[in-house]
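#structure-requests
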Amino acid sequence: MKLCLSLLVAAFSAHAAESTFFAFDDHNIAWQHNLKLTLETAQKHPANPVLRNGPPGSPDAGHAILYGTVLKQGDTFRMWYLGMHEAEIVKGQAPGWWRPMCYAESKDGITWTKPELGLVDFNGSKKNNICLIEGEPHSMTRVNDFLSVLFEPEEPDPSKRYKCAYIAHMPIEDVKGGRSKIGPNEKRWGSFVTATSADGLTWKCVGDRPANAEGERFEVSGLYRFGDFYYATGQLLSPWSWRPDGSEIGRDMLAYRSPDFVTWSKAKALSYARPGQLSNPPVKGQQMHMGAGLWNCGNVMVGLHGMWQDAAEKPPAGKSWNLGVRVDLGLMISNDGVHFREPVPGFQVIPRGKEGEWDDVAILQGHAFVNEGDQTMIWYSHWDTGGVLENMDIGLATLRRDGFGSLSPKVTENDAHFITSAFTAKQIALNVDGLSAENPLCVQLLDHLDHPLDDFEITLTTNGLHVPLNWPKPLPAHKIALRVNYPANSSAKIYAVYLND
């Protein structure tokens, strides 16, 4: 076990030592001449859905959705997801509603098993895959919605190396400290609850009250560490959230922060709202759904957000309130861990399926990104907005490794180039395609004032996911920038620049 943990620490440390300038990062690749960004649509796996709901009587008989997380540790993919044992949505949902934190494993990310953990009594048996959450009051342990799992191998306290955040709709009377007068007089509290664990299977709640402000229905959907703070992002809407001018807004993403995973800020940052939500007047029916599924890439946060569009017509009486809502998944990025943006607003990285396909109504994002071999693997799930839990299972989509998008010449007949922001590194590599001996790239190093450095210009003709730039001498210790020159008639595509310390 010590050897296994040492390997995990080394793997995570190695990841942190490498910075990635993605092609769609217009902060780190801001300076461009004659270039266009082409985003890619992920390819859905032919075996989808790769993880399905269980048989009658199981914890996920109603549905298995990836309001959760996938991590690869060692040679095992680990998934935390939400099950539901009811076959249909219960009217009123909270405070008694429970969607257990379920656990699955895989060796390839495609074929999954649901191990018998033996931790929680369900229907008279502990032979199930439910994770145990301990805490007082008991209602804090009842997961209702989105859970996000974070692994920190360098955490000095072994019992806290796994951290999570989730939504538990608690009765108001269960909440220590009472409630504020802000917002409608509800019987439940949209609670943002945190917990820690040594193994990711047995958890203990942090404290004895929710982390979010009193009386607020904050639907936490993300948890990550970026710089000096932990951040918890989630969904809010009016009356708890509003546009900068104070006017009402639909679902948007806000963030809390904490320096120690115990005390969380009362102040929140507006992390993201879809462009149509902030226009004047706002685009009718356009919202973002449940924050974002996020991937910490070390120097930047990358994620997928739910591109919500209201139903064209109001549902008939007696039907689900959100019948007809449609959701696709769009790409977003943040350079500070707080403020997110879409590289190309409205682009669907993972679109919902066509009519009649298993994921044809609306889809949901998870914190589920893994670079494996030559692919970036992304798991997601289906949401039946009609409220009957039909086909609410988990699927897989893939891209070229780090291949969310590429930079290539806009006017092919002309030359093109980009210059990165300044950095220090010992090694530089490119994720590139479309090169040949007849169609090379010229790569240069510049000082912080854009002056070319002597003896730091090379020609690149090799394609690959991580092609090293072999300079004639070691890189300078001071800050430098990279200039990549595309000759006229170039067909080169650059997906990412990698900087290794």
